Automatic annotation (TrEMBL):
<dbReference type="GO" id="GO:0003849">
    <property type="term" value="F:3-deoxy-7-phosphoheptulonate synthase activity"/>
</dbReference>
<keyword id="KW-0464">Manganese</keyword>
<feature type="binding site">
    <location>
        <begin position="292"/>
        <end position="293"/>
    </location>
    <ligand>
        <name>phosphoenolpyruvate</name>
    </ligand>
</feature>
<dbReference type="InterPro" id="IPR002480">
    <property type="entry name" value="DAHP_synth_2"/>
</dbReference>
<feature type="binding site">
    <location>
        <position position="450"/>
    </location>
    <ligand>
        <name>Mn(2+)</name>
    </ligand>
</feature>
<protein>
    <recommendedName>
        <fullName>Phospho-2-dehydro-3-deoxyheptonate aldolase</fullName>
        <ecNumber>2.5.1.54</ecNumber>
    </recommendedName>
</protein>
<keyword id="KW-0104">Cadmium</keyword>
<keyword id="KW-0028">Amino-acid biosynthesis</keyword>
<dbReference type="Pfam" id="PF01474">
    <property type="entry name" value="DAHP_synth_2"/>
</dbReference>
<feature type="region of interest" description="Disordered">
    <location>
        <begin position="1"/>
        <end position="50"/>
    </location>
</feature>
<keyword id="KW-0808">Transferase</keyword>
<dbReference type="GO" id="GO:0008652">
    <property type="term" value="P:amino acid biosynthetic process"/>
</dbReference>
<dbReference type="GO" id="GO:0009073">
    <property type="term" value="P:aromatic amino acid family biosynthetic process"/>
</dbReference>
<comment type="pathway">
    <text>Metabolic intermediate biosynthesis; chorismate biosynthesis; chorismate from D-erythrose 4-phosphate and phosphoenolpyruvate: step 1/7.</text>
</comment>
<feature type="binding site">
    <location>
        <position position="315"/>
    </location>
    <ligand>
        <name>phosphoenolpyruvate</name>
    </ligand>
</feature>
<feature type="binding site">
    <location>
        <position position="420"/>
    </location>
    <ligand>
        <name>Mn(2+)</name>
    </ligand>
</feature>
<feature type="binding site">
    <location>
        <position position="135"/>
    </location>
    <ligand>
        <name>phosphoenolpyruvate</name>
    </ligand>
</feature>
Length: 471
C-alpha cells in the first residue's frame, strides 16, 4: 500500500517495510503533548509504556553531545547544491536498519568500503564528483505497517528498529524501551567516530583503491573490472606525483551520515542552536529524511523538518501527486535554498517512467532547485517462495534506468542514488553478476529488515550507472 496525496491507502505491488498508511499501525494518530515541541499528530511513533521514562530519556538527550555540527551540515548543503546544478552525483546508502550488534569495526569498514568503491567507479568511469552519504550512524528506527506481528499463534509488538526494541521474537525482546534511545545515541557516536577515522586516517587514500578490492569481490567478474580501473588510477596517481601534484583530496574523503528522522522523542531533544547564526540544526546526523509513511503535510514530521536547517530529503512513492510535491517545497524550502531539499523517488521499476515526469516538471516550474535522487529498492520488493523479502537486481537496475530516461527526456539532472547495501557477501537480493538465485536466499540472509545489495551487486550497479551517466 502507499499513501496517496490525501493520505488514504491504496494498494500497489512491490511495497516494502509493509503497507503505507496515514496514521499507521491502525487507529488514529495521537496528538503530541504541548511542551514546546511539535504538537501536530505524529505517525509511526512507538506507544511507549512508560511516559515518565520517556521524559527522563528526552532530558538526557537534551544534554547529550552533538554528533555533528552546523558547519558540516552547511558544507553538505553546498555539496548537494552542486548536485542540483548537475555538477555532481549523490551516492547515499547503507543498511535498511542498523543494529547495535553491528557497531563493530568490520561491518562499518565494509560499508564504508562499498560506498568508496562505488564512488570511485562513478568518479573515474563517469568523470563526475560524487557526494558520499552513508545511511549510517543513526539508522536505527523503522516505520512499520502493523503494530504487532503474529507467529505460531503468538502476537508480539512489531520490531521498530534497535532504537525501540529488539528483533528477536520473544516478549522481553519486543518490549518497547525508551532507554534504547540513549543506546542509539551512543551507537551512532561510536559508528561516526569510526567512519571519521576510516575516511580521514589513511584507509580512504586513493592509493588504497586496490586494497579495497579483497575477498569474495576480487573473485567475481566485477572484481576484475574494478581491478583494471584501480590500475589505471594508480598510473594516473604516479603521473601526478611525477608532475609534483599531491593534493589532500587524494588522501582522505569527505563523508557524511544520514538517517530517517522518524522518532521525534530522539530527534527533538537533539536539536541544537548554532551560536554563530541562531539557526536550529539537528545534531543527530548531517542529513535527515522523511519517510514515505510520515510525510503528511499536516503531520509532525514535516513541521519538525521545517524547523531544522540541515539538508533534508523526502521519500516519494508512486502515489505522490504533483500538488503534494509543490506543497512540500513550500513547507520545507520556502527560501528556495539550493541543496536544502532532496526528493528521493521510490516508485518501482514499472511505474517510474509514468509517475515521475509530472512531478519533476511541476517542481521545475515552482522555482526550487530541488535535487532528484532514485531509491530503486523500496518499490521493487517481493516475497520469495521461501518467504524471504527480496528484490531483483534487474528490477533495481531497470528503475535506475527509467529514472535516468525521465531526466534525460526532460533535460533535468538525475542527481543520485539512494541504496540499501552492505559490505558483506549476503544473499538477500537476487540476480547481479554472481547471480544469487531465489534458492540461495536462505544461505546468508542477515538483514534486520529489508534486503540489501551485497558488495558485488553494489559494484555491478555502480558500473551500470557509470554507463548511463552523461552529465
Ligand atoms: C527505508 O528507507 O528503509 C524506508 C522505510 O523507505 P520508505 O520510507 O521509502 O518506505
Ligand atoms: Mn528499507
Amino acid at each position: 500500500m502507499v499513501r496517496d496525496g490525501e493520505g488514504r491507502g491504496l494498494p500497489l505491488p512491490g511495497e516494502s517495510d509493509g503497507p503505507v498508511l496515514s496514521g499507521e499501525a491502525g487507529g488514529p494518530v495521537p496528538p503530541r503533548e504541548s511542551d514546546g515541541r511539535v504538537t501536530l499528530p505524529a505517525a509511526q511513533q512507538p506507544d511507549w509504556p512508560d511516559p515518565a521514562g520517556v521524559e527522563a530519556v528526552r532530558a538526557e538527550l537534551r544534554g547529550a553531545l552533538p554528533l555533528v555540527i552546523p558547519g558540516e551540515c552547511d558544507l553538505l548543503t553546498s555539496r548537494i547544491a552542486a548536485v542540483a546544478r548537475g555538477e555532481a552525483f549523490l551516492l547515499q546508502g547503507g543498511d535498511c536498519a542498523e543494529t547495535f550488534a553491528g557497531v563493530q569495526a568490520d561491518p562499518v569498514r565494509a560499508k564504508v568500503r562499498t560506498l568508496l568503491q562505488m564512488a570511485l567507479v562513478l568518479t573515474y568511469a563517469a568523470a563526475v564528483p560524487v557526494v558520499k552519504v552513508g545511511r549510517m550512524a543513526g539508522q536505527y528506527a523503522k516505520p512499520r505497517s502493523e503494530a504487532t506481528e503474529t507467529r505460531d499463534g503468538l502476537t508480539l509488538p512489531a520490531y521498530r528498529g534497535d532504537a525501540v526494541n529488539d528483533v528477536a521474537f520473544t516478549p522481553e525482546a519486543r518490549a518497547l524501551d525508551p532507554r534504547r534511545l540513549l543506546r542509539t545515541h551512543q551507537a551512532a557516536a561510536a559508528t561516526l567516530n569510526l567512519i571519521r577515522a576510516f575516511t580521514t586516517g589513511g584507509y580512504a587514500d586513493l592509493r588504497q583503491a586496490h586494497a579495497w578490492n579483497q575477498d569474495f569481490v576480487a573473485r567475481s567478474p566485477v572484481g576484475d573490472r574494478y581491478a583494471e580501473l584501480a590500475i589505471q588510477i594508480d598510473q594516473a596517481l604516479n603521473f601526478m606525483r611525477a608532475c609534483g601534484i599531491d593534493e589532500p583530496v587524494q588522501h582522505a574523503v569527505e563523508f557524511f551520515v544520514s538517517h530517517e528522522g522518524l522518532l521525534l522523542d530522539y530527534e527533538e531533544p537533539l536539536v541544537r542552536e548554532d551560536p554563530l547564526t541562531g539557526r536550529m540544526y539537528s545534531s543527530s546526523g548531517h542529513m535527515l529524511w522523511i519517510g514515505e509513511r510520515t510525510r503528511q503535510l499536516d503531520g509532525a514530521h514535516v513541521e519538525f523538518f521545517s524547523r531544522i536547517a540541515n539538508p533534508i530529503a523526502v521519500k516519494l512513492g508512486p502515489g505522490t501527486s504533483a500538488d503534494t510535491v509543490l506543497s512540500l517545497i513550500d513547507r520545507l524550502d520556502p527560501q528556495r535554498e539550493p541543496g536544502r531539499l532532496t526528493f528521493v523517488v521510490r516508485m518501482g521499476s514499472e511505474l517510474v517512467r509514468d509517475r515521475l515526469p509530472p512531478l519533476v516538471e511541476k517542481a521545475a516550474g515552482h522555482g526550487a532547485a530541488v535535487t532528484w535522487v532514485c531509491d530503486p529498492m523500496h518499490g521493487n520488493t517481493f516475497k520469495a517462495p521461501s518467504g524471504h523479502k527480496t528484490r531483483s537486481f534487474d528490477a533495481i537496475a531497470d528503475e535506475v534506468k527509467g529514472f535516468f530516461e525521465v531526466h534525460h527526456d526532460l533535460g533535468t539532472h538525475p542527481g543520485g542514488l539512494h541504496l540499501e547495501f552492505t559490505g558483506g557477501d549476503v544473499t538477500e537480493c537476487v540476480g547481479g553478476g554472481t547471480d544469487v538465485l531465489l534458492e540461495d536466499l536462505a544461505d546468508r540472509y542477515e538483514s534486520a529488515c529489508d534486503p540489501r545489495l551485497n558488495r558485488t551487486q553494489s559494484l555491478d550497479l555502480a558500473f551500470l550507472v557509470a554507463g548511463m551517466y552523461s552529465p
